[in-house]
Amino acid sequence: MTRTLSLAVLAFLASGCKGQWSRVGWPAPVTKEGRNLLGVWYGSLVTAGIVGGFVILLILWAVWRYRLRDPGDLPRQVRYNLPIEMLYTIIPVVIISILFYFTAIRENDTDQFHVKPGLRIDVVGFQWSWQFNYLDDGLSITGRPGDPPQLVVPVGVPIRFYEQSTDVIHAWWVIPFLFKRDVIPGRVNVFQVTVTHAGLFQGKCTEYCGVDHDRMLFSVLALPKDQYDARLAQLKALAQAGTDDRFTSYTGPTTPVEPHPGTDQRSHS
Ligand SMILES: [Cu+2]
């Protein structure tokens, strides 16, 4: 029995060195920005582990040290202890401040655009699907509920996304980007990512937006640059042929209204 148990623990630890176990549940990030955000998760987990371990040890110590030895032997009854209560207040404030500091630093860094985008995509959320407009390539990909659209992007190129909604608040989330952002009517939300891995990634609306919210699915196909160029040319030809109404020529504005200065998105380029 002990042998089986120790083998099981060993197998668990061995598998813990790679894959999803090593990220404690998080998917592998496929963008530069996602790697940055994964660090916040690790930092929070380590902090939680240390605090949790310390509290459990203190509980076990108190249980053992102050166990009842004699039924009539009540410990000294204390109403309050000011220094300890101050400590109870100060320590959590310090822990939360440290977590807040590192989270804010990483979030701000994700919101700063350090490089000029090589591709600009306008994401339109509507009840209940998505439209992707390639602002510089004259292509629109439109989904329908139950027929999720597929966004095709190149690997290694900074992509700037401009999000808009035609009706209610949606939220754009590609799971292995480790990032989501609300799509809000009346404003343009901007963010930028650089995809580092080729692959097919699942995305969804992550803000409950109405009865068919669960059908607001999409996918992102990330391809090496040459394959991406070929695929885009194919889709543009499809749009021009007009045989498939999911693909149309984009003729809208090529410069979406950027957020006003002073909002949480800042552009350096
Ligand atoms: Cu939605």
Structural summary, described in words:
Helix content is about 35%, strand content about 25%. The protein is α+β, with helices and mostly antiparallel strands and about 270 residues long. It folds into 2 domains: about 20-70 and about 75-110, Helix Hairpins; about 115-250, Cupredoxins -  blue copper proteins (Immunoglobulin-like), CATH 2.60.40.420. A 6-stranded mixed beta sheet has the order 9-6-2-3-4-12. Strands 5-11-10-7-8 form a 5-stranded mixed beta sheet. Helix 3 runs antiparallel to helix 4 (about 80-110). The termini are far apart. The relative contact order is 0.14. Residues about 260-269 have low confidence and may be disordered. Bound molecules: copper (II) ion. Copper (II) ion binds near residues 125 and 213. Copper (II) ion binds near residues 205, 207, 209 and 213.
Characterize the biggest β-sheet. 6 strands, mixed
Mean pLDDT: 87
Question: What is the SS-derived class?
Answer: alpha+beta
Range of strand content: 25-35%
How much is the radius of gyration in Å?
A: 26 Å
Q: Provide the CATH topology of the largest domain.
A: Immunoglobulin-like
Poorly predicted residue ranges: 260-269
Strand order of the largest sheet: 9-6-2-3-4-12
Could you say what the CATH architecture of the largest domain is?
Answer: Sandwich
CATH C-level name of the largest domain? Mainly Beta
User: What ligand molecules are bound, each kind once?
Assistant: copper (II) ion
The name of the CATH superfamily of the largest domain reads: Cupredoxins -  blue copper proteins
So how many helices?
A: 5
Q: How would you describe the shape?
A: elongated
SSE order in H/E notation? HHHHEEEEEEEEEEEHEE
Q: What is the rounded distance between the termini?
A: 63 Å
Number of strands: 13
